[in-house]
Amino acid sequence: MLSKIRSRDQARREADPRAPGKPPGAVGSIAKGPGLASDSGIAAESFSAAGETRRDRSRRKNRRSRLHGYAILAVALVAFLIALAVSNTAAVKVSWVFGTSHVSLVWLVLLAAILGWLFGLLSTAAFHWRTRAPHRGATAD
Hints:
Layout: H1 2-15, H2 39-49, H3 54-87, E1 91-96, E2 99-104, H4 105-130
Antiparallel strand pairs: 1-2
């Protein structure tokens, strides 16, 4: 496909007497003038020749930017969790129903976060199961 573009551009250069005398196929050898494509036009043609439109290229670059943002956010979250763990190493007294114990505050917060996450998953699954659509093949006898 790229060879077709080059041969078409070469024919345009040969037809225009104002075109500079660069060797055929040289990069950037297309003069800007009436009826001739600019260098940015060649870039656009090469994108369309490769099967990627401007919109696709923009989506790809936006997705890459979002992924970089997520990576930065993940690193910041890990750094925050490490700082939280380092600053909360003191032992605290936890009162249970039938007794008390001394636990590091970090482990208490981590256990509470994990339990909250698990209960959230279980409740979401239960609500989904209880509010699901009826089966299509089921008939009442």
